[in-house]
Every structure is written in structure tokens, then in C-alpha cells.
């Protein structure tokens, strides 16, 4: 079972927010003990009762045994449940609002300790345990403390997603988006690539909805009420689902509808009705409304991924309440087929959205594309720059012209920007040298000097530009001009038989976040590389790659063009050659 | 080419380095393009702007009402943000040149697009 954790408040009408948030803010009721925005508040405050308890200075409070040295655990003096404990870090950490991303581990440890305590009291049914933080100003004490209550029915959401077979995309895209929204998620299934369904725990329904507003990989998200490998298991699991959590959506004033969705199999109308009828034991009290129901529930049956071998019975059945759909219809409305201007290498709409999500692009970000062509990915709330003019027309077509910043003509290997970090994301698809040869400016021979007047759109002599050089230039450029935490997303063409992980270009300032493969042909593929800037750029960093051994594996890719054509039929090779120059 | 872009561009002629900034703007055709006002975006751009370069460029274009610098609490000052929005994003240079202050090299702006490509012998190795 996926474990659940949630940050909540006991007041019914305050917002639920995830336990860690990226922005530290000062709570209005804070005492002077906690400093907002500074990395480390004082470790110990003798005025704070929890600090004193942690140091064993309160004789009336007994400390329970706790494996983790940085945490202590004790009973709450005003228990709200038969078992009510508090898990508190020894160091004085402020309240829930002041948490930062690097304190995620601390929070995870606290949850783990909470669970151990509960287990020790012979409580294994985690559905009956509630853990959480109070949000200020509803906090009693400003020292971070995790409440652990049992047995109380849980608040958290388990959500479920249907997604397409390109599963690895989905997971990395979803991860990037979740970190953008500050949501923590946990997943207990090892179904990477094996199933279109994915169960995860998300702290709140709002985060789930935000996620679905951005993603193009996920089809829908549901609140999971039960699941099993057979109908009987499903019904048992549904019977175990706490009734109080069902009631708000089933009461007599509401309207609802039940749908069935089967993956990889078609059912007759009769079969569908049979399955819906089998759920009569659920306490539905509202009226059925097939046209515009308030709540939609779905039965989802998973018949595997092989269309040639459809089993009699489903591998998995799920039942849940529908929350939101993903943005897959954007792929159709932004399709390349309908675009006014397309170039040789216009990017598929779906992939463009995925790239934007990997780049964690948010409102009012500045995004730079050094190889923009006809403006493939300028669709989310972004601002664009790069070398070509037709982008503006494309953006106008989509009604997004206000997001357009500027274009210029330049050589990406010779950046013309003043020193500084101004881009929030660099998202691009560099030329691979197949349909459009890679070139850069430079001279091969001596040319007489003396050009005083303005050259007027001079196109200089071009040198062939080795692929590996280009990627290093790209990484250097990104490392220099990205803000800290900004992302670089780009495609790396590889010759599959020779590919190894070491070939992915690296840089001391950039950390590799993900590496997703898309097959292009039997022996070539391209990988969507996402990197995040974690270190400020210093001048010597631009030469680091010369000192490393890792430059060697990718050098081989300089002959990517030859390799691309090897083993391919002569006809295709001829086509490629004729579309060059 | 918008003034926001001009503010970030620098000359990369060989040997010039940081003295290649700011590029001197000379415009023969300018257009004012209305752009939807987005206060959050403008507020985010203010810290990245090099004011001296901006004022110089605005001066050569004979723009009026250009703020001298960021005021205290500019994020909430709508009048200030609207002025900056106009200066940075709505003024579009269609034809003109950018000149490197150190070497004198001219980069053309044509149809609103600056061409920063260098000649063969000017490229830095």
C-alpha cells in the first residue's frame, strides 16, 4: 500500500498545503525565535518548550525510544486520539511554512519514526493513522512537530493516472511538474513501463489538478478508492475504504455517473452494465445523471500491453473518483500539421510540451532557444528568443504573440550576451547534422583585411562543426547564462549500438536530471536530456571538459552522419543526400 | 529588436571582451508595438536591466518619460511598471545599426532582426 502523508490543519476551512514549500515566509504570529529566509535558525532556544523536552529538561515528559538521533518522540499532553504522539527534531526548526527543499529528508525521517512508534503499539493498519503538521497561525508551538494520531481515518489522497505506453517520459515529466508545484509524492509500485496505470500519493487534490493542467503525458487522474487483481479483490478493497471519505460524493443531493474504461480490450454493453451493477453494495445515495453529473466515478480495467494477446481476465482493476484530465488535446490543437510555418525539423507538438515541462517553465520565465528554427516549443507561458523570424507568425497563429520577446541571427558557438545570468530555461533541439548540417563561423584561409562599412547580412564562411564541440558549447552557454536552479533541456542524437551512459555530455555546474530515449530508426535514437544548474559558473569551468576523460566517448559521435547512414537502405540514403544542399 | 534585447547584447569581436558593452544604437526606423501589459514579468526583468545602457539607448531614440532607475517598492508601483513595460517591450527598432564601442564594428538591424554574425577574421578563437 502506498503510504500517506499530508500537511493539514485542524481548522476545517484553511488550505491544505504540502509539507515542504519552496518559499520561506514569515508567519505573522511568529515569535522572535525563528528567522525567516535564513538558512539555519538557532539550534536551541531555552524559551521553547520542545527544545527543553528534547534536551530532557522537562521531567514530566517522558521521551520514548527513537532510533533516529536527531529526533525525539513523546506523547502529546492533550491527546486527540487513543494514541497521540509528537515527533520533534532536536534542533530548533521553525514551523511548517519555513521548511525548505533540503529539509525534505528531515520530514521523511520524522514520518518514518512516526510509523515505527505506531507499529510498536501493534498498529499495522496505516489507514487508521493520521500524521501531519499544523499550518500557522494554527500552530500551538513554533518548533516543528509532527502529530501522529491513531486510530483515526486518514485524510490523504491516493491518486491514479492513466498514461500512454511511453512510460518513462511520463514519470520524468510528472516528477518535474510535481517538484515545480512543491508537491511531494511517493509511489510504491514497480510498474515503470509495465502498465499504463500508476498509483501515487499526492498530498492534496489541488496539486493533482495543477499537475494535470500542465502534463501532456498523463490522460486522467483519479482518487483511488480500491483496486485488486480480480473483481473479488476489488470489492474487498472497496469495502475497506473508509466510508466517511466516500459519503461527501455520494449523498442524496448529488448526481453521479459511473464509467468503465478498459485498456487493451473492448467489452460489450452487457458486460459493462454487469460490472457497474456489481458495485451496488457501495453506498450511492445520489441520483444518476448521465449528461452532466457532479461526480464521475470510473472502473478501470487493465488487460496488459500486448494487443496480440488479450487475456480473459484483467491484470488489475481499479475504482476511483475522477479528478481531472491531462492536456493531451493540446497535442492535436498545436499539431505541426496545422501550423502556418514549418521547417525541416519542426518538433512534434507533444514532445514540445514535454520539453517545456521538463524545463519546469512557469509563468513569466524567460526561455532561450539557441537553435530555434520555426519556434517549436513556444507554447507554454514562455518568452522566446533565437535565430529566425517565422516564430512570430506561428505564435500569432496560436494567439500567444504577447509571449514573444525577440529573435536575432547569431552563431550559437559565439554568444553575444553580456556576462550575467538571465535565462530561466534553455530548451532546444540542436541540429544533428543529418537534414541540416552543423556549421559555425570561422575562416579556413587568409582573407584580406579592411572591411570598414557595415557588411549587410554577410554570411561568413562556415567550418564544419563537430557535434561534440557543439554540445560542450551548449552546456557552457547554459551554465553561464542560466539562473541557479534553471534547466537545460535538449536532444542528444546517439548511435544506439555504441551508446553508453558516459557519453552524455557533462559539466561541473550542471546536474543530470533525466535521460529519456526516443527511437528514430533501428540503429539511431535521440535522448531528451534534462540538466539543472546547481553551481555558479566560474571562468575555469569552461575548460573543465578538456581535462576529463569523458570527452572521448562522445568524440566518436562526430561521425554521427556516417553512422546514421550505415546499414540503412540505399534508397533512404539517397533521399537524405538529395535533401541536403 | 526590443530595448530589453539591446540591454543584454554585447559585442564579441576578438579582443574586445567586456568593453564591447553596451552596443551603441543607431536607428533609422522605429515602431511602437502595443504589447499586453504583464506586471509580474516586467517586475522580474527590472533587476536584470543595466540602467546606464538602457538610458543611453532610450536617449538616442528620443524616448520621453524614461525612469532614471528602479524606485523603492517598484514591484507594486503600476505607473513605474507601465513606463518600463513601454520602454523595454513596446519600442521596436526595425532598421538601424549596433556599434561596438571598442572596435567600431557595425552590426546591422534589418526587419527588426539584429545580425550578430562576425566576419571570418573577427572571430575570437
UniProtKB/TrEMBL annotation, chain B:
Instruction: Give the subcellular location.
Output: Cytoplasm, Perinuclear region; Nucleus, Nucleoplasm
Range of residues in the leader sequence: none
Q: Does the keyword Nucleus apply?
A: yes
Q: Which InterPro entries match?
A: Trm112, Trm112-like
Q: Which GO terms describe its biological process?
A: positive regulation of rRNA processing; rRNA (guanine-N7)-methylation; transcription initiation-coupled chromatin remodeling; tRNA methylation
Residues annotated as transmembrane: none
Keyword annotations of the record: Cytoplasm, Nucleus
The organism named in the record is Loxodonta africana
Record-stated family: Belongs to the TRM112 family.
GO molecular function terms here?
protein heterodimerization activity; protein methyltransferase activity; tRNA methyltransferase activator activity
Q: Which domain of life is it from?
A: Eukaryota
Cellular component, GO annotation: nucleoplasm; perinuclear region of cytoplasm; protein-containing complex
Predominant localisation class: cytoplasm
Q: What is this protein called?
A: Multifunctional methyltransferase subunit TRM112-like protein
Amino acid at each position: 500500500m502506498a503510504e500517506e502523508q499530508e500537511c493539514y490543519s485542524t481548522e476545517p476551512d484553511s488550505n491544505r498545503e504540502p509539507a515542504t514549500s519552496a518559499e520561506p515566509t514569515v508567519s505573522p504570529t511568529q515569535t522572535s525565535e525563528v528567522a525567516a529566509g535564513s538558512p539555519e535558525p538557532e539550534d536551541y532556544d531555552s524559551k521553547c518548550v520542545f527544545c527543553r523536552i528534547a534536551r530532557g529538561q522537562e521531567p514530566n515528559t517522558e521521551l520514548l525510544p527513537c532510533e533516529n538521533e536527531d529526533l525525539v518522540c513523546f506523547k502529546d499532553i492533550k491527546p486527540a486520539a487513543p494514541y497521540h504522539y509528537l515527533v520533534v527534531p532536536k534542533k530548533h526548526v521553525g514551523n511548517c511554512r519555513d521548511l525548505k527543499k533540503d529539509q525534505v529528508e528531515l520530514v521523511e525521517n520524522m514520518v518514518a519514526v512516526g510509523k515505527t512508534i505506531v507499529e510498536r503499539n501493534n498498529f499495522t493498519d496505516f489507514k487508521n493513522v493520521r500524521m501531519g503538521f499544523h499550518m500557522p497561525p494554527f500552530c500551538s508551538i513554533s518548533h516543528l512537530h509532527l502529530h501522529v494520531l491513531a486510530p483515526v481515518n486518514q485524510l490523504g489522497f491516493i491518486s491514479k493516472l492513466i498514461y500512454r505506453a511511453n512510460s518513462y517520459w511520463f514519470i520524468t515529466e510528472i516528477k518535474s511538474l510535481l517538484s515545480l508545484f512543491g508537491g511531494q509524492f511517493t509511489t510504491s509500485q514497480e510498474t515503470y513501463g509495465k502498465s499504463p496505470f500508476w498509483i501515487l500519493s499526492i498530498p492534496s487534490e489541488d496539486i493533482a489538478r495543477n499537475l494535470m493542467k500542465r502534463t501532456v503525458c498523463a490522460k486522467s487522474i483519479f482518487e483511488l478508492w480500491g483496486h485488486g487483481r480480480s473483481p473479488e479483490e476489488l470489492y474487498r478493497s472497496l469495502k475497506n475504504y473508509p466510508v466517511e471519505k466516500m459519503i461527501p460524493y455520494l449523498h442524496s443531493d448529488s448526481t453521479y455517473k459511473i464509467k468503465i474504461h478498459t485498456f487493451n480490450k473492448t467489452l460489450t454493453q452487457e458486460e459493462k452494465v454487469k460490472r457497474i451493477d456489481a458495485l451496488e453494495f457501495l453506498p450511492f445515495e445520489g441520483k444518476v445523471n448521465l449528461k452532466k453529473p457532479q461526480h464521475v466515478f470510473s472502473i478501470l480495467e487493465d488487460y496488459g500491453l500486448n494487443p496480440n494477446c488479450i487475456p480473459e481476465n484483467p491484470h488489475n482493476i481499479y475504482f476511483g473518483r475522477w479528478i481531472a484530465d491531462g492536456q493531451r488535446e493540446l497535442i492535436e490543437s498545436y499539431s505541426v500539421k496545422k501550423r502556418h510555418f514549418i521547417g525541416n525539423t519542426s518538433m512534434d507538438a507533444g514532445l514540445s510540451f514535454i520539453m517545456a515541462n521538463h524545463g519546469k517553465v512557469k509563468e513569466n520565465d524567460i526561455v532561450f532557444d539557441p537553435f530555434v528554427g520555426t519556434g517549436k516549443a513556444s507554447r507554454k507561458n514562455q518568452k522566446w528568443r533565437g535565430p529566425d523570424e517565422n516564430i512570430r507568425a506561428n505564435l500569432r497563429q496560436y494567439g500567444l504573440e504577447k509571449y514573444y520577446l525577440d529573435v536575432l541571427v547569431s552563431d550559437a558557438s559565439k554568444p553575444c550576451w553580456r556576462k550575467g545570468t538571465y535565462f530561466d530555461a534553455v530548451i532546444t533541439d540542436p541540429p544533428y547534422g543529418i537534414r541540416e548540417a552543423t556549421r559555425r563561423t570561422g575562416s579556413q584561409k587568409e582573407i584580406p583585411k579592411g572591411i570598414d562599412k557595415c557588411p549587410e547580412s554577410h554570411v561568413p564562411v562556415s567550418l564544419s562543426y563537430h557535434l561534440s564541440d557543439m554540445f560542450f558549447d551548449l552546456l557552457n552557454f547554459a551554465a553561464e547564462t542560466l539562473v541557479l536552479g534553471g534547466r537545460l533541456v535538449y536532444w542528444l542524437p546517439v548511435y544506439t549500438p555504441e551508446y553508453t551512459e558516459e557519453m552524455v555530455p557533462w559539466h561541473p555546474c550542471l546536474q543530470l536530471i533525466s535521460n529519456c530515449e526516443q527511437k528514430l530508426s533501428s540503429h539511431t535514437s535521440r535522448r531528451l536530456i534534462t540538466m539543472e544548474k546547481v553551481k555558479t559558473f566560474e571562468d575555469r569551468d569552461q575548460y573543465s571538459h578538456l581535462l576529463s576523460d569523458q570527452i572521448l566517448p562522445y568524440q566518436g559521435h562526430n561521425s554521427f552522419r556516417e553512422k546514421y547512414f550505415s546499414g540503412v537502405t540505399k534508397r533512404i540514403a539517397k533521399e537524405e543526400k538529395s535533401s541536403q544542399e | 529588436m526590443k530595448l530589453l534585447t539591446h540591454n543584454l547584447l554585447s559585442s564579441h569581436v576578438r579582443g574586445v571582451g567586456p568593453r564591447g558593452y553596451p552596443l551603441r544604437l543607431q536607428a533609422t526606423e522605429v515602431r511602437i508595438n502595443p504589447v499586453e501589459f504583464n506586471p509580474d514579468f516586467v517586475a522580474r526583468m527590472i533587476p536584470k536591466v543595466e540602467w546606464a545602457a538602457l538610458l543611453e539607448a532610450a536617449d538616442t531614440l528620443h524616448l520621453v518619460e524614461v525612469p532614471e532607475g528602479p524606485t523603492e517598492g517598484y514591484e507594486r508601483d503600476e505607473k513605474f511598471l507601465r513606463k518600463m513595460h513601454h520602454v523595454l517591450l513596446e519600442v521596436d527598432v526595425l532598421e538601424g545599426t549596433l556599434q561596438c564601442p571598442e572596435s567600431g564594428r557595425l552590426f546591422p538591424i534589418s526587419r527588426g532582426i539584429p545580425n550578430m554574425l562576425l566576419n571570418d577574421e573577427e572571430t575570437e578563437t
